[in-house]
Amino acid sequence: MTCICAYVFAVRNEYHRKNLELLATVDPLTGVKNRRSMDEGLQMALADALRTNRSYGLVMMDLDHFKRINDEYGHSVGDEVLLDLVSLIQKRIRNTDQLYRYGGEEFVLLLSGVDPDGLELIARNLHKIIRQQLRLRCHDSKITASFGAALLRRNESAEAWLERADAALYEAKRSGRDRIVFSGAVPAQDTSSPAGSSGLAN
Fold first, then answer.
1. Which burial class, exposed, middle or buried, applies to 181 when counting CB atoms under 10 A from its CB (0-12, 13-18, 19+)?
2. At CA 126, angle to CA 120 and CA 92, rounded to 5?
3. Of these residues, 14, 40, 72, 105, which one is catalytic?
């Protein structure tokens, strides 16, 4: 009986330990990995790139005017938008790609085995699908996102790589939102909103 009790106690402790680990690495709202997991993922990508010479890319995404959504419609509506965004993205990425919630309405996509053309294709497809399909359920207003993308450079640190993607995202926001800026990887191309667009994209 003592052995049985000890076994049950050990199993329960292991169950609770795994649950705590999950809570520490997964965003509770969206179910995607959080910033702590992203830091670990970037380090693993750097180690794999050094060992195998595999290429990696980062795509940072930030919803445009998200604060306005929360202020005007409430945080529950904002949560719906984030869940819809994650659903749209997860349906269009590979099993080997990793999506992280970086904070608030900002997400990071870690892509393995992508060259400049592949990074461009993925970023532009996501930008297009978000522009076309992401809307406020309660108001049917369009929601757009800004993107910053960067390929990993040889011997680059995770911090420097992330900073380049973040700087590209900042430039996309600064230059008008609803567009993609690539950090030295892909030739510039206008991805701004077409004239006459309406809703929260303006």
1. buried
2. 105
3. 105
Residues with Cβ within 8 Å of residue 179, at least 6 apart in sequence: 127, 146, 147, 172, 190, 191, 192, 193
Sign for the CA dihedral angle at 188, 164, 25, 54 comes to positive
- For the chain, the domain total comes to 1
Q: Is position 19 within any domain?
A: no
User: Which tokens sit at 66?
Assistant: 């998200």
**5 in a structural domain:** no
- Closest by Cα among 19, 15, 13 to 5: 13
Contacts of 92 (CB under 8 A, 6+ apart): 125, 126, 129
pLDDT at 5 (0 to 100): 60
Q: Check if 105 is active-site.
A: yes
Q: Which domain holds residue 78?
A: 33-201
Residues paired with 33 in a beta bridge = 26, 100
How many other β-carbons are positioned within 10 Å of the β-carbon of residue 182?
A: 25
* Threshold 0.70, pTM exceeds: yes
The one-letter amino acid at 89:
I
Per-residue pLDDT of 35-56, as tens digits, reads 999 999 999 999 999 999 999 9
CATH of the domain at 127: 3.30.70.270
